Amino acid sequence: MLLGALSLVEHDWRREDVADWLATGPLRYEGRDIPATRWDVLSAEAGVLGGLDHWHVRLEARAHTLRTEARQGSEEGDEDDAPWRTVREAEADRCDELLRFLDQMAERVSQTSATWADWAEWAKKLLGDLIGVLPPWSHGRWPNVPRPKR
């Protein structure tokens, strides 16, 4: 997972690489599981190819389109379309969320450290944030497992 995050920069944030990396495990963002499949579909629908600038241009345009469609449906006043409008607005919010996540990841993987200890701490923090590792004290007492006799 960590190596995959670092390779995103090398591959200029290609959509396929980002999607593959998001699917490597149960990643978390802002305390919730990342909707990896949904983010992949949204980025594909938006026509994202790669490069952080391209992610921004395409996803911002997609979010704008989704919000415009929701607003136009709302102006028409058809109550049967209310769930459709809600879905459109939620999808636009997911585009925004994906961009925030990518921007934060880009910032984090571009950080540099002076010592191996700093790098280790950086990696531990990143992995903890991404997979939701609990601090050691939250595990309680580990069970005693008898050692096998030799």
Low-confidence runs: none
What is the multimeric organization of the chains shown? single chain
The whole-number mean of residue pLDDT values reads 87
**How would you describe the shape?**
elongated
Q: Helix/strand/pairing class, anyone?
A: mainly alpha
The neighbouring-strand order within the major sheet is 1-2
The level of helicity is 55-70%
Backbone CA Rg: 20 Å
Report the total helices.
6
- Give the number of domains: 1
Could you tell me how far the N terminus lies from the C terminus, measured between alpha carbons in angstroms? 37 Å
Note down, in words, how this protein is organized.
The chain is mostly helical. It has one domain (2-139). The protein contains six helices and two strands. It has a two-stranded antiparallel ribbon with strand order 1-2. Strand 1 and strand 2 (32-33) form a beta hairpin. Helix 2 runs antiparallel to helix 3 (36-46), helix 3 (36-46) crosses helix 4 and helix 4 (52-76) runs antiparallel to helix 5 (82-109). The longest helix is centred in the middle third of the chain and has 28 residues, at 82-109. The protein is elongated and about 75 Å long. The model has no long low-confidence stretch (mean pLDDT 87).
